[in-house]
Design brief:
Length: about 280
Amino acid sequence: MRILLANVASAKERTDEARFIRDTLAPLWKKNFDLVRQKDTEIVARFPGWGIGGLDGFFYSYIDTLNSQSVFHAAVAAEKEGFDAVLIMCFGDPMLWQIRQAVNIPVVSLGESSILLAAMMGQKFGIVTISPYNIPEMEHTIAKYGLEHRYAGARANSETGDEQGAAILDARNAIESFREAATELVRDGAEIIIPGCGLLSPALRLAPAAETEYPEGLTTVDGAAVMDILSSALKTAETLVALKKAGSSWISRTRLFAQPTDRAREAGRIVLKDDRMIYWDVGL
């Protein structure tokens, strides 16, 4: 099966940022996915040349929301190109439910998949977010998913955006910052701790530059399990693709994920196209 990773952070191709993605970020993600991926699963990471660069813009919901259209267009293109599923590489689940209306292949995201799986792993879960400004939005998301009674709360990572990005090279500071936040969540009753970021989670799971101290990565804090959100999302995507290929039910089209009529698509034609969207891919 072929799965497209739709990324929210942008970088223009043939720039230093793009080289960093190819040489450093993509290999880290590949190593993380390789822990669990099926032998026949091909993964392609797609990056937009238009949109937010760096983490700081994702601290603020209006900027984050405006940026989400790049994920939408990447997902629509993925279906046309024959991909079997789309994995949105953002814990905030940008346009997740909306994209499910637009395409007829499985679409999963880091946030929803890990939150729902966490509810199977323990009684209560807590989330470490990338910024205190993300906590109110996280609370709205938990309510939308109907899991308020299983939610122990959220704590923000104390590092700056640049420091959090650097964790994929050297995870030592990120691990200590995460442990501090996670310890508070454990005191509040969390049995599962979710790293709320697609950069933080692989840094914890693989512990680059901290392999001696954490040869298996950071998988627990004070007895509470630390989720591997990349692996969780990939296995969710693979499962839905397998169900679809087997002819089993994999989604409902009656209400929430009802697909638009041809007339509706024609009425929205002007907003369903955006010539700014130029992408480049990295195979994992």
